[in-house]
Amino acid sequence: MDGARNCPPEDCGGPYAYKDFLKVLQNPAHADYDNFVAWLGEDFDPEYFSLDEKNALLKRKEYGLWGYW
């Protein structure tokens, strides 16, 4: 329940494509590496995770029963 890794970027192709995406990011010699870095920006870190940040996002979006009553 404490989380791991950054979430997949929007429109990356789903969980299976994200797995392939991570392999490309680990290999700067890969043909798609430069395109992926240009799309994401240089600061994207697939290993980054902050439970506090995720909880703050959930609170702002009011995901939960009380937000719907």
Q: Can you tell me about this structure?
A:
There is one protein chain. With 69 residues, this protein is mostly helical. The chain has one domain (14-68). The chain is built from 4 helices and no strands. The model has no long low-confidence stretch (mean pLDDT 82).
Give the topology, please.
Layout: H1 14-25, H2 33-40, H3 51-61, H4 65-68
Number of domains: 1
H/E element sequence: HHHH
Quantity of strands, as a count = 0
Given helix and strand content, the structural type is mainly alpha
Q: Main β-sheet: number of strands, strand sense, barrel status?
A: none
Give the amount of beta strand, in percent: under 5%
Mean pLDDT: 82
Kindly report the oligomeric state of this protein. Answer: single chain
Distance between the termini: 26 Å
Share of helical residues: 40-55%
Low-confidence stretches: none
Shape verdict: elongated
